Amino acid sequence: MIIVTGGAGFIGSNFVRQWLANESDGVVNLDKLSYAGNLQSLADVAGNPRYRFVHGDIGDRKLVDALLAEVKPRAIVNFAAESHVDRSIHGADEFIATNVVGTFHLLEATRGYVASLTPEARTSFRFLHVSTDEVYGSLNMDDPAFTEEHAYQPNSPYSASKAASDHLVRAHHHTYGLPVLTTNCSNNYGPYHFPEKLIPLMITNALAGKNLPVYGDGKNVRDWLYVEDHCHAIRLALAKGRLGETYNIGGRNERNNLEVVHAICDALDQLRPRSDGKSYREQIVFVTDRPGHDRRYAIDATKLENELGWRAQESFESGLRKTIQWYLDNAEWVSGVTSGAYRDWMTKQYGKVAA
């Protein structure tokens, strides 16, 4: 068995599904089901005998200790995190509690568990920590992409909390010899993405006839990574990565936000035309930029590609088309996550234009 924390979230649920389809080990999914955790994202594997869900917090040391003793996993993959920059700006408490304190308690529980293993089991055990490119800060338009050697310069409460968790993982390896790996990914997109992030928000708002709110001038650049490609990279890092190492995972697909929104509108114009015959681009509105909005992220994935033989299988165009089609085909899932509380959040963040 392996334990996946935060497996009911966007990337975690895609990872669990891909793991069960391609690996022989079973999966225990430990998730506290915060606002973006959704068991409906794993409804298709809920009856799989190799899958088990445990409701709980990585910061609950008693629960985690008991779970490790019972399951005796050969690996832990830690997706559990609060992950939305905008939410961290409005209130960082949960980000510190989960991303910093929770990760610390998970590491300490893992350290105790590893110490109890036989020498052979200890040698094969792995703790893989999933992180973000946002820990590196912001790039100018002509700067080279982030490598694993880039200095940490987090600029938001969210990225600062993830940077702290990365440092704790590194410290547990160097001080205690915990067999860890860290991955830092660029912006993910794909099925089961909670509709507050850019791509799913634009798709769902467009289909609902709502405005498409774009921060500032829309020129902030991100490197886009299809979630299935990300999950494959994590599986490779877990199987073949060097202990104590960090691997950057990126799609080599830099696009500014306005280009992304235009691409979504153009695809929807073909796949689900508006009843009035006009383009979805007419729904775009520009809203006040968020505080401290990083201008550009970009990932250099050369180390991962050269050491582990990973390559992204989806181009931005093919991945976006698959994503849009998934949202068109899964309106029930979308409607299930867009609760009253979610709509309240959207109004608070973007104002009446998103309501």
Describe the structure.
- The chain is α/β, with parallel strands linked by helices.
- It is built from 13 helices and twelve strands.
- The strands form three sheets. The chain has a seven-stranded parallel sheet, sandwiched between helices.
- β1, α1 and β2 form a beta-alpha-beta unit.
| CA-based gyration radius | 20 Å
Q: What would you give as the CATH superfamily of the domain at 2-192 and 225-253 and 292-314?
A: NAD(P)-binding Rossmann-like Domain
- How many angstroms does the end-to-end distance come to? 44 Å
Q: How would a textbook summarize the main sheet?
A: 7 strands, parallel
H and E order:
EHEEHEHHHEHEEHEEHEEHEHHHH
What is the CATH architecture term of the domain at 2-192 and 225-253 and 292-314?
3-Layer(aba) Sandwich
CATH class of the domain at 2-192 and 225-253 and 292-314: Alpha Beta
- Helix share of residues? 40-55%
CATH topology of the domain at 2-192 and 225-253 and 292-314: Rossmann fold
Oligomer: single chain
Give the low-confidence spans.
none
Count the helices. How many?
Answer: 13
Strand content: 15-25%
Structural class: alpha/beta
What is the strand and helix layout of this fold?
Layout: E1 2-5, H1 10-22, E2 27-31, E3 51-55, H2 61-71, E4 75-78, H3 85-90, H4 93-115, H5 119-124, E5 126-132, H6 157-176, E6 180-185, E7 187-189, H7 198-207, E8 212-215, E9 221-226, H8 227-240, E10 246-249, E11 254-256, H9 257-271, E12 284-287, H10 302-308, H11 316-329, H12 331-337, H13 340-350
Parallel strand pairs: 1-2, 1-4, 2-3, 4-5, 5-6, 6-10, 7-9, 8-12
Antiparallel strand pairs: 9-11
